[in-house]
Amino acid sequence: MGESLCKVIEDSNSFSMGIDMLSRLGLDQKVLNAYMKAKMPLELISYAVQHQCLPLIDPVSLLEISQVLDDHVLYLNVYTYLIVVDYIVFLKKMTYSHQGLGMQKRKT
């Protein structure tokens, strides 16, 4: 059902109405895919922040779209975001690996 709905949204002039319909159905991933296929990165990010589904975005695809659109600012921001998230994940892994060595987790 979701795939055919996305196809209808892409082929018609009622893109925003289709996005609204998918959103009301709770199909956040389908909405994000529609924005991704339409090459609308700012709307994609805005929707993801408003609906708290930012982890569903594939950052590599967002980097590719920013290259296609020649949007250097978006590319730099997504790339920086990826580095920060990767560093946070690394720190969390280090914190938990030190617990096994008898070290205690720091209380914040």
Q: Could you walk me through the main structural features you see in this protein, from its secondary elements to its overall organization?
A:
It is a single chain. This protein is an all-alpha fold and 108 residues long. It folds into two domains: 57 residues, no CATH class; 51 residues, no CATH class. 72% of the residues lie in helices and 0% in strands. It has six helices and no strands. The longest helix is centred in the last third of the chain and has 28 residues. It is flat, with a radius of gyration of 18 Å.
Q: Structural class of the secondary elements?
A: mainly alpha
Instruction: Choose one word for the global shape.
Output: flat
User: N-to-C SSE series?
Assistant: HHHHHH
How large, in whole angstroms, is the Cα Rg? 18 Å
Kindly report the average pLDDT value: 79
The domain tally reads 2
| Low confidence ranges | none
**Number of helical elements:** 6
End-to-end separation in angstroms reads: 46 Å
- What's the count of strands? 0
| Beta strand % | under 5%
Question: Strand count, sense and closure of the main sheet?
Answer: none
Provide the helix percentage: over 70%
Descriptors:
6 helices; single chain; 108 residues; mainly alpha
